[in-house]
Design brief:
With about 280 residues, the protein is α+β, with helices and mostly antiparallel strands. It has one domain: Alpha-Beta Complex (Creatine Amidinohydrolase). It is built from four helices and 17 strands. Bound molecules: 2-amino-4-trifluoromethylsulfanyl-butyric acid (MF3) and cobalt (II) ion (2 copies). One cobalt (II) ion (CO) binds next to loops.
């Protein structure tokens, strides 16, 4: 049984109930999410061959501090960085380090800022110099998966409609959907109910209602869907070492569909965009 609660009267922990937020929360989320989007915009000029993921991570930390925000990942369940940087066959939760990026790699950068208590969670793919056509195609397919998932969001639909739209498109393009990680409710908590699966059937999962806020963040592989987590406890990689990509937006359900809080103010959140 799913239950829905007014966010204002709900305890600050994940009880499994789905929070319904009002206008003030939407305004708070808009601000936090736009800060995240602006950071991801800035990174478009920073990501290039020779740059280390620790340098990227340092930028994410500093940009947050300059804007009164803290990265939500810092000290989250023992994670020690301000961002996740997932290169090539890394599916998600790649840990920034001192290795320079190399021409032809693709890297997902995932940033969540906490601003005034609200979490803005988004990620994009960045090509490092010139990339192969297969990589370009995977980025296009994954971004289209995110857009199709978002297009399925409206009051009365179920969360399964989001997953179904994503899975149908990914598999029609001979790609696979990672099952081990999902989107999530977000707001004053980083990870909250409900889970947003990126696969499934339209009649599955809780019904979407106006005022819900969650992420959609499909991870799509060129090869098989299976992943394993490395001995660092975080880095998730494809078992077959095939290329993996991910895009993530935070959205709020409105009467007519949804508002994408993490849209790029500069229009830089689509894979084709290079400066
Ligand atoms: N930002 C990720 C997400 O989209 C979560 C990262 S948690 C971390 O949900 F601890 F790995 F950083
Ligand atoms: Co997320
Ligand atoms: Co994220």
């Amino acid at each position: 049984m799913v239950t829905y609660i007014e966010a204002l009267s709900a305890p600050m922990k994940n009880t499994g109930a789905i929070r319904l937020y009002g206008a003030d929360a939407f305004e708070g989320m808009r601000k936090a999410c736009q800060l995240t989007a602006r950071c991801l915009d800035e990174l478009a000029d920073i990501v290039k061959p020779g740059v280390t993921t620790n340098e990227i991570d340092r930028f994410v930390f500093d940009f947050g501090r300059m804007n009164d925000a803290l990265p939500a990942t810092l000290n989250y369940r023992g994670y020690r960085k301000s961002s996740c940087t997932s290169i090539n066959h890394v599916v998600c939760h790649g840990i920034p380090d001192d290795k320079p990026l190399r021409e032809g790699e693709v890297v997902n950068i995932d940033v969540t800022y906490i601003l005034d208590g609200w979490h803005g969670d988004s990620s994009r793919m960045y090509p490092v110099g010139e990339i192969k056509r297969a990589a370009e195609r995977l980025l296009d397919v994954t971004y289209e998966c995110l857009l199709r998932g978002i297009a399925a969001v409206r009051p009365g639909a179920r969360t399964g409609a989001i997953g179904h739209a994503i899975q149908a498109y990914a598999e029609a393009e001979r790609c696979s959907v990672v099952r081990d990680f999902c989107g999530h409710g977000v707001g004053r908590l980083f990870h909250d109910a409900p889970n947003i699966l990126h696969y499934g059937q339209v009649n599955e999962g809780p019904e979407l209602r106006e005022g819900m806020i969650f992420t959609i963040e499909p991870m799509i592989n060129l090869g098989r869907p299976h992943v394993k987590v490395l001995s660092d406890g975080w880095t998730a990689v494809t078992r077959d070492r095939s290329l993996s990509a991910q895009y993530e937006h935070t959205v709020g359900v409105t009467a007519g569909g949804c508002e994408i809080f993490t849209l790029s103010p500069a229009g830089l959140d689509t894979p084709g965009i290079r400066r």
